[in-house]
Amino acid sequence: MILAGLCLTAVGAADLVRRFAARRAVRIALLVVLAAALVAIGILSDAVVPAVIAIVVGAVWVRSMPLDAIGPASFWPAVVLAVLAGATTALMPDRAAPGVIGSVWHLRSPEGEVTFDAAVLCVGVLLVAAESGNLIVRAALDREGTWRPVEAAGRFRGGQLRQPQQAATGFQGGRLIGPLERLLVIALTLAGAYSLLAAMLAAKGIVRFPEISKDGETGARAEYFLVGSLVSWVVALGAAFLLWWGVHS
Fold this sequence. Notes:
membrane; mainly alpha; two-stranded antiparallel sheet; 249 residues
């Protein structure tokens, strides 16, 4: 579990640094600090090897998952990360003695004692649900041809010439709405408030309906909304299940 938590933490924190650190020098410095913090956590929690693996995974993610998520191949790092996190959470159970930190770590919750490994996994899941979730959604939209507007002359995508279509504009604030929505989905799912979850998802469709109804014949807005929303919900539900599995394993 500690490997999954550290990998998700490295990926999520790196994406937040890339998004909010405008200057390249500041961005590189913060990424170095992040790597050093992961190594320190690995040393103190007797998880040096998982920490090093997490740094490598974070570096590969940054390299293969650009912020603009251009190109169909950019979606596959998200699939690999999901498989890695799921497999390591299932195959590496919670450790009884997580190094020096384990001797001083005490965190209680309504469900009982929260172990250090479970806390790291929780932090990683929440970080990925933030900016990393936005990257995954944009990668899926780009893969389906709904994220980038097609030039007037058309262009090749996936071996086929795509004809021009109207850009799916009008949806503002998605960079903030997406993370908040995913965090709410995770919280409501773990709390078992499925009726509230269904109501929230239905309310989103109702609020967006006036924009979707302006589609005309292209269907671009409806496609943009459906693909983006479904991918975002899958990310949130997968994160909630991963966290539930890690805590109860």
